[in-house]
Recover the amino acids of this structure.
């Protein structure tokens, strides 16, 4: 009864309905989630005009919101050339804009592909391919530091290997700050990647949705990484600025994924026009844009919110690290951005139950987590090179993190952690 593509889409998982929010009293078996500060600001400051009940100014972001966003980005991203509101296009979340990037840079069903490093944000595999006819080409940097300038050679090798197989790489997509490793790309690495894209004639797309969720270590023995936006680098003599695009949104730095607002920033007029034409299929709510504009216009509030967020993120990270260390569970210790830790649970994979198939063992362990009320993204979902990796969210209040203590149960032969759903925070 369905088309071939419809039948294939029907097999893809999605979130729908009640998400089992954690409460220590009323629902100790669920997952905790609340955004008190943001909700208070919205309820205090927002009285909507009847214009919000109409199509307003169309499908791509109100003038007021784009002006507020440009001022926000110019203040916090420190771009080499000021970001103009006309460079900004809004849609109902960055998810839709990920797809748009694939649609406007790649030809469908023609071996066109987007290059990514591994591991990387798991939903790219759906966002970029599900409706686009585009493939993804993953690069494994091996023992090379994924964030050092040495990684550029690995990306070039990946590009050439794909080319030899008849794959046309049309864009490089990076997460900066990185999801799931929580690190920031240094300036010299970004320049190296920009030069690579210039030499290959491809776009570079920088997902900077965690840009302002970078906290500082309070330990002198643990140097803090600094976020550098790709727009902070003067492209003169490096790359045509029309090949450089940035993704940003309200869901992470502001804990407002329910607002469904994301934007792409580009100095490429043709790219922007194509994006805006497609965004009629994922236009943002006039109410959401009104709320976001009020938030971004109040930079005093934004500064205070981000300062509090950084304090809580640092505290949550330290609590989670302490609990993991006591349980002798290894994790990626570098980085100071985002809401997550990249765990190595390879020693706990039930290999004897899967005839030694490590990826099957990872899937089995994930099913056991889910049965225990635990949701963690798997290494397989994040295109990890080796099985046994899981992404742990630590952006919870301390009582929830401690309730989610990690322990080894010899009777069950399983690891049980209570964690937040991916993308959720206070």
């Amino acid at each position: 009864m369905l088309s071939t593509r419809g039948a294939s889409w029907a097999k893809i998982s999605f979130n729908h309905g009640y998400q089992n929010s954690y409460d220590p009293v009323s629902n100790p078996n669920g997952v905790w989630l609340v955004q008190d500060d943001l909700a208070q600001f919205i309820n205090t400051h927002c009285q909507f005009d009847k214009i919000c009940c109409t199509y307003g100014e169309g499908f791509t972001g109100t003038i007021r919101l784009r002006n507020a966003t440009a001022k926000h980005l110019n203040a916090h991203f420190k771009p080499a050339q000021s970001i103009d509101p006309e460079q900004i296009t809004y849609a109902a979340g960055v998810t839709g804009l990920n797809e748009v990037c694939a649609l406007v840079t790649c030809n469908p069903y023609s071996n066109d592909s987007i290059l990514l490093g591994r591991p990387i944000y798991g939903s790219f595999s759906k966002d970029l391919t599900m409706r686009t006819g585009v493939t993804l080409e993953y690069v494994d940097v091996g023992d090379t530091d994924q964030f050092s300038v040495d990684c550029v050679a690995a990306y070039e090798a990946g590009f050439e290997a794909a080319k030899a197989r008849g794959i046309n790489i049309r864009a490089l997509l990076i997460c900066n700050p990185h999801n799931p490793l929580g690190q920031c790309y240094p300036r010299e690495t970004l320049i190296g990647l920009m030069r690579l894209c210039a030499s290959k004639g491809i776009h570079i797309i920088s997902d900077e949705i965690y840009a302002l969720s970078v906290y500082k270590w309070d330990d002198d023995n643990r140097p803090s990484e600094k976020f550098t936006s790709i727009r902070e680098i003067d492209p003169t003599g490096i790359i045509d600025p029309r090949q450089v695009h940035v993704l940003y949104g309200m869901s992470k730095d502001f804990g407002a994924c329910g607002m469904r607002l994301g934007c792409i920033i580009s100095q490429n007029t043709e790219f922007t026009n194509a994006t805006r034409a497609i965004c009629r299929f994922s236009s943002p709510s006039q109410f959401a844009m009104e709320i976001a504009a009020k938030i971004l216009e109040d930079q005093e509030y934004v500064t205070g919110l981000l300062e509090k967020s950084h304090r809580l993120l640092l505290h949550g990270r330290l609590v989670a690290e302490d609990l993991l260390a006591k349980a002798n569970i290894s994790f990626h210790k570098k980085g100071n951005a985002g809401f997550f830790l990249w765990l190595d649970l390879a020693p706990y994979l039930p290999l004897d139950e899967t005839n030694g198939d490590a990826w099957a063992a990872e899937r089995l362990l994930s099913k056991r987590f889910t049965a225990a009320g635990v949701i963690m993204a798997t290494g397989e979902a994040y295109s990890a090179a080796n099985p046994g990796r899981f992404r742990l969210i630590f952006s919870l209040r301390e009582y929830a993190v401690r309730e989610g203590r990690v322990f080894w149960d010899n009777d069950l032969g399983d690891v049980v952690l209570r964690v937040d759903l991916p993308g959720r925070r206070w």
Q: What stands out?
A: The domain at 14-39+302-416 is CATH 3.90.1150.10 (Aspartate Aminotransferase, domain 1). Residues 299-326 form the longest helix (28 residues).
